[in-house]
Amino acid sequence: MSNIVIQKTPVVVVGSGLAGLTATYKLLQQKTPVILIEKLDKFGGNSIKASSGINGAFTSVQQSYGLDDSVEIFLKDTIKSAKSLGDLQLQETLVNESKKAIEWLQQEISVSLNIVNQLGGHSTKRTHRSDGIPPGFEIISKLQKKVLEFEGLDIKFNSKLISIDSQNDKIIGLKYLNLLDNSEIYLKTNNLIVATGGFGFSKKLLQKYKPELVDFPTTNGAQTLGEGQEIISSIGGSLIDMEQVQIHPTGFIKQDDRENNWKFLAAESLRGVGGILLNSSNERFVNELETRDTVSNAILKQKDQKATLVLNEDMYQEFKFQIDFYSKMKLLEKTTIAEKFKDDTTKVIELLKKYSQQPSDSNNKDENIEIIDQYGRESKQHVFKNVSADSIIFSGEITPVVHFTMGGVKINTNGQVINTKDQIIDGLYAIGEVSGGVHGANRLGGNSLLECTVFGNRVAQHIINSDIDVDDDIGLKLKQQLVL
Ligand SMILES: Cc1cc2nc3c(=O)[nH]c(=O)nc-3n(C[C@H](O)[C@H](O)[C@H](O)COP(=O)(O)OP(=O)(O)OC[C@H]3O[C@@H](n4cnc5c(N)ncnc54)[C@H](O)[C@@H]3O)c2cc1C
Ligand SMILES: *[C@@H]1O[C@H](CO)[C@@H](O)[C@H](O)[C@H]1NC(C)=O
Ligand SMILES: *[C@@H]1O[C@H](CO)[C@@H](O)[C@H](O)[C@H]1NC(C)=O
Ligand SMILES: *[C@@H]1O[C@H](CO)[C@@H](O)[C@H](O)[C@H]1NC(C)=O
To answer: Which residues form the FAD-dependent oxidoreductase 2 FAD-binding domain (predicted)?
Structure first.
C-alpha cells in the first residue's frame, strides 16, 4: 500500500510553451499527475523562439555586476510601460516573484542566465540570458527534459482543445480533437490549466479587436490563434484589454523574401548591446531603447516605414551566437561603412562619431558627463569606436511587426479565471500570453517569459494547496498506472 505514489486526480494542462511546462513541472514534482495536451507535434510554442531573455530584479547575477536594482524600480518601469492599464495586483506579483523565478531556472532547471542586458523601457540591466544559446530554446529544451523524467505525465501531441465543459461555474471536463484521426475525445477533470498563448497570428481576432493590424507582418508561429481566449470566453470567462496588441519595432526584412508576412524577429538585445536605427535618409530618428510602442510609432512615421539596424564588431562579440545565426539566414550583412552607405559614407561616419561621444551607461554614469544624446538614449553598452570608411559593421533592414497580445483572459493572482459576473470559475486557470492584465498597454521585453514562469508556478501551487479528491475514473486509471 505504501507504494502508491499518486493519490490525486490528474490536472489537464493545455499548451506546451513555457507557461504550460512550468505548471506541469511544478505539479509533477509534487506528485500530482498531469495530462498535457498540445496541438502541434512538438513542445515549445512561441516560447522556444524567445531571443532576448527573462527579467529579474535584485538577482545575484545583477549583484555580481554591481548593478543597482530593486523590485520597486522594476514595478515602476512595468507600470509606466503598461500606461497604468492592466491589473496592479498581477503586476506586483510578477515583479515580487521575479528573483525567485530566475533562481528556480538556475538552480532546478540548470539554465545559467549569467548575462544581463538592458532592454527598452527598463531603468537598468535586468534581462537575463545565458552565454552562447538563445534563452527560449535553452529554457524549453532543459525544462522539457526535466519534465519527461517525472512519472505521472501523459502527453498528447496533435491534440487540439476544442471545448470546455462546466457546470455551475465549475470545471467538469473538456473535449479535444485528435488531429491525426479527427476523433473527438472527452476528458473528465476538475482542474484545467489553459496555456495556449496569444492570438498574434489570428486574422479573425485581429480583425475583431485591432483591425488596422490585420495585414501587418508578424513574428508569431501559425499556431498562435487565440483558441484559448475564444473557448474560455464561450463559457463565460471575461476577456480584458483585447485591443492591446504589441507591435515590435524590429522584424527583419529578408532581402530575398521581402514580401513574406512572417518575419524573423530582430531581438531587442541587438539594440540592447548597442545597435542603432537609421532611416532611409541615413539619420537617427528615435531613442532606440524607448519602449516598443514608442520606437514602433517612430518607425511607422518614416516615409517608407522601415529602418536600418547598425551594429559594430564589439556589439557582435557581445551577442555573437545570435548574430551568427542572423548572418547565416542573410538577415544581417557583414560589410563596411563605405560599402553600405556609399555616397553617405562621410555623413554616417560623422553621425556615428557624434553618437559615440556620449558613451553614457545608465549604470556607470560619470557625473561629469552630461547626457546629451540627441534622442535621450542613456544606455549605450557599446558605441562605435575609431570609425572610418573601412570599419566593419553588421546591418539589416527592419520593419515593425505584430508580436504579442497583452490582452486576454481575466485572471486573479492565482491564475484563476474570472467570469463576466466577476466570480471565479472553479478549477479553470489561464496563464502566460492567453491571460490579460499583466502588461497593460505595452509589455516590457523580457516580461513574458517571466510571466509564464511566475504564474505557471502559482497555479500549480494553488492546485496543490486545494484538496483534490480521487473521485473519477481518469484519476483512478492514472493512479493505477503510477503504482510502482
Ligand atoms: C520571436 C519571438 C521572440 C520572443 N522573445 C522574447 C524574449 O526574449 N523574452 C520574453 O519575455 N518574451 C519573448 N517573446 C514572447 C514570449 O516568447 C511569448 O509571449 C511566451 O513565450 C508565451 O508563452 P506561452 O507559454 O503563454 O505560449 P506559447 O509558448 O506560445 O505556447 C502555447 C502553446 O499552446 C499550443 N496551443 C494553442 N492552442 C491550442 C489548442 N487549442 N489546443 C492545444 N494546444 C494549443 C500551441 O501550439 C503552443 O505550443 C518572444 C516572442 C516571439 C514570437
Ligand atoms: C509585493 O511585495 C510588496 C512588498 O513586500 C507587498 O507590499 C505587496 O503586497 C506584494 N504584492 C503582491 C500582489 O503580493
Ligand atoms: C529621417 O529622420 C530625420 C530626422 O528625424 C528626418 O528629418 C528625415 O525626414 C527622415 N527621413 C525619412 C526618409 O523619413
Ligand atoms: C583605427 O582604425 C584604423 C583603420 O581602420 C586602424 O588602422 C587602426 O589600427 C585603428 N586604431 C585602433 C586604436 O583601433
So the answer is: 11-449
Whether residue 248 lies in the annotated active site: yes
Torsion sign across C-alpha atoms 263, 201, 248, 431: negative
How many Å lie between the centroid of ligand 4 and the Cα of residue 475?
A: 70
Q: Considering every ligand atom shown, identify the ligand nearest to the alpha carbon of residue 387 and give its number.
A: 4
Residues at CB less than 6 angstroms from ligand 4 = 386, 388, 390
pLDDT tens digits along 137-148: 999 999 999 999
Task: Kindly report, residue by residue over 30-42, the tens digit of the pLDDT.
Answer: 999 999 999 999 9
> Does residue 14 surpass a pLDDT of 60?
yes
Rounded to the nearest angstrom, the distance between the alpha carbon of 78 and the centre of ligand 2 is 15
**C-beta 397 within 6 A of ligand 1:** no
- For residue 357, what pLDDT is reported? 86
pTM for the full predicted model: 0.91
Convert the pLDDT of each residue in 176-190 to its tens digit.
999 999 999 999 999
Cβ-based neighbour number of residue 217 at 10 Å = 17
- Segments of the chain assigned to CATH 3.50.50.60: 5-203+406-482
Ligand 3 mean position, distance from CA 301 (Å)? 9
Looking at the chain, which residues constitute the CATH 3.90.700.10 domain(s)?
247-401
Determine what percent of the chain is predicted with pLDDT higher than 70: 92
Q: Name residue 23's amino acid.
A: A
Nearest protein Cα to ligand 1, atom 6: 50
Residue closest via CA to ligand 1's atom 8 equals: 52
Among the bound ligands, name the one nearest to the CA of residue 304: 3
Q: What is the CATH superfamily name and number for domain 5-203+406-482?
A: FAD/NAD(P)-binding domain (3.50.50.60)
Out of 271, 284, 292, 443, the active site residue is 271
| pLDDT exceeds 90 at position 114 | yes
Average pLDDT over residues 375-396: 95
Residue whose CA is at the smallest distance from ligand 2 atom 2 = 96
Q: Which of 79, 96, 451 is the pocket-test mutation for ligand 2 (most atoms within 8 Å of CB)? A: 96
pLDDT at 9: 78
Interval 123-131 mean pLDDT: 97
Task: Give distance in angstroms: CA of 96 to centre of ligand 2.
Answer: 7
The pLDDT assigned to 484 comes to 32
Q: Which pLDDT score is estimated for 479? A: 44
Third-level CATH fold of 247-401: Flavocytochrome C3; Chain A, domain 1 (3.90.700)
- Catalytic site includes residue 377: no
